[in-house]
Write a structure and sequence with these properties.
CATH topology of one domain: FAD/NAD(P)-binding domain
Strand content: 15-25%
Number of strands: 22
Distance between the termini: 53 Å
Number of helices: 15
Structural class: alpha/beta
Strand order of the largest sheet: 1-7-6-5-19
Largest sheet: 5 strands, mixed
CATH class of one domain: Alpha Beta
Radius of gyration: 23 Å
């Protein structure tokens, strides 16, 4: 039986016939951002309802339960900071927690703060329309519900709209097809099976390294090889947890001012000022940390200087080659068409070693693409690969996908889907001109879309939204939206910042290149978390200068 991927977000209903139920705010999503946003708005005394398509809280960590799913941010910063009691009582077991531990944490938060009573599960938003006459949003769902609220906050996530593989013949395949982002809660039996994995991004890498020893045969269908950093994970005992808790007050503050919201920042030395021996020694030291610090805590010049990027890229290529016995396979796994760090950098644990196993075959589909499914497997060129299970690690419509599938219409009936189909725009990644009182936590053109420890940036954005709503209510205003000029300023600043880097030279989901027809723009702000926070703070300190507040 094949698992379908809903690419239309439960269809396009014209609207519910039910009378809308009034709330002060409607939130979409019950993951890291949605839970915190619900907590903050409820603390203000607002009547709030959160809607989530899942059957329980967790967001990303509810849906992505595929084999090997794991956080690649350290647990001691991938957490909430708003409650000292929560920080004191929750014990992280690993430096990089696996999916079950992270999901347990979010369920603990929901229970501790009694958030479930204001969350409606198994509910998909099918439309959201701005009612100008009453300064409110009308939100309809696939269950026939209709809600009315002046504030509509999307916490649907930047990677929550899965992309199905565009290969014909799925209905003819007699085996099982499953997308990593829709992995069944009761699992999939892979033991001894002939399994194919399509995609070798961060998710594909985690799946492949985890199941290789379990399956009978594993075929990895790779279009683009990846640079991945070897993860150094470790378990925590009470002494380690106590040591980290002592650092929490400092971490709570410092993570908001580093480049990517972690507890580390770039090296102070300039790469080209160091001797070759000093460069190599520094790279080896950072590599040994086994975290994303090699990417967003190493040398800032990596992102803008082609010479520096080339040298660091070759350092990583050598690390990859050293792990693989067959030099022909090694060369297929070494990226050469783009530089290190200009696309998403995954962490891995034994991924490259997988290709030394007799039951694993790398299928390069960069030159001879997958033709489609057959009854028995996948067809590549004129060769059929017999398979029992096909795992789609084919990614997401990042940044814009979740909201684009909700049929959101703002002032004068303008469609957010149509807008972003032509040009991906926002102001601070938090609001869009023409859509009053719509807040887009983890929306496009903010660091939270890709270049930030998610827990850091999502909490910062939720705080901004909460403060904005507080301001409106205290001052007696009903609506806020950025002016066209304000939005143009942010888009221009965003593009100038992006174009000063090497990021736009690489085709990846970071630039929307994985979605046919998607406008090309760096989806995430790359000016740094500290700088972004400064711009957000300035908007509030100026009483939202450049915004239409009525």
């Amino acid at each position: 039986m094949n698992d379908p991927i809903d690419t239309n977000n439960a269809g396009n209903r014209a609207g519910s016939t039910a009378s809308p139920i009034d709330y002060d705010a409607i939130i979409v999503g019950a993951g890291i951002a949605g839970l915190y946003q619900l907590y903050r708005l409820r603390e203000m005394g607002l009547k709030v309802r959160a809607l989530d398509a899942g059957s329980a809280v967790g967001g990303t960590w509810y849906w992505n339960r595929y084999p090997g799913a794991r956080v690649d941010s350290q647990s001691y910063i991938y957490q909430y900071w708003f409650s000292d009691e929560l920080l004191e009582e929750w014990d992280w077991n690993e430096r990089f927690p696996a999916q079950p531990e992270t999901e347990r944490y979010l369920n603990h938060v929901a229970d501790k703060f009694d958030l479930r009573k204001d969350i409606q599960f198994n509910t998909t938003v099918t439309s959201a329309h701005w009612d100008a006459a009453h300064s409110r949003w009308i939100i309809d769902t696939d269950r026939g519900d209709s809600f009315a609220a002046p504030y509509f906050v999307s916490c649907a996530g930047m990677l929550s709209a899965p992309v199905a593989a565009p290969f014909p013949g799925r209905e003819t395949f007699k085996g099982k097809i499953v997308h990593t982002a829709r992995w069944p809660r009761d699992g999939v039996d892979l033991h001894g099976k002939r399994v194919g994995v399509i995609g070798t991004g961060a998710t594909g890498i985690q799946v492949i390294q985890t199941i290789a020893a379990q399956v009978g045969e594993l075929k990895v269908f790779q279009r683009t090889p990846q640079y991945a950093v070897a993860m150094r994970n470790e378990t925590y005992d009470d002494d380690a947890r106590k040591a980290w808790r002592a650092q929490y007050p400092a971490l709570r503050e410092s993570v908001h001012h580093t480049f990517a919201g972690f507890d580390y920042d770039f090296e102070t030395d300039k790469f080209l000022d160091l001797s070759p021996a000093e460069r190599k020694a520094t790279l080896e030291r950072i590599w040994a940390d086994g975290s994303l610090s090699f990417w967003v805590g190493g040398f800032a010049e990596l992102f803008a200087d082609e010479t520096v990027n080339a040298e660091i890229s070759e350092f990583v290529r050598a690390k990859i080659r050293a792990r693989i016995k067959d030099p022909v396979v090694a060369e297929k796994l070494v990226p050469k068409s783009f530089g290190f760090g200009t696309a998403r950098v995954p962490l891995e644990t034994g991924y490259y070693d997988v290709y030394n196993r007799d039951n694993v075959e790398l299928v390069d589909v960069s030159e001879i693409p997958i033709e489609g499914f057959t009854e028995n497997g996948l067809l590549v060129g004129d060769r059929e690969y017999p398979l029992d299970v096909v795992i789609l690690a084919t990614g997401f419509d990042a940044g814009t996908g979740a909201l684009s599938r909700m049929d959101v219409h703002g002032r004068d009936g303008r469609s957010l889907t149509e807008l972003w189909r032509k040009d991906i725009r926002s102001t601070l990644g938090l609001q869009v001109h023409g859509f009053p009182n719509l807040f887009t936590v983890a929306g496009p053109l903010a660091p939270s879309t890709a270049f930030c420890n998610m827990a850091t940036c999502l909490q910062q954005q939720v705080d901004w939204v909460t403060d904005c709503i507080t301001y409106l209510r205290e001052q007696g205003f009903k609506t806020i939206e950025p002016s066209a000029e304000k939005e143009a300023w942010w888009v221009q600043h965003h593009d100038d910042t992006a174009n000063a880097t090497l990021m736009m030279t690489t085709n990846s989901w970071y630039t929307g290149a994985n979605i046919e027809g998607k406008p090309r723009r760096l989806l995430s702000y790359i000016g740094g978390v500290g700088n972004y926070r400064k711009y957000c703070d300035e908007a509030q300190a100026s009483h939202y200068e450049g915004y239409a507040v009525t």
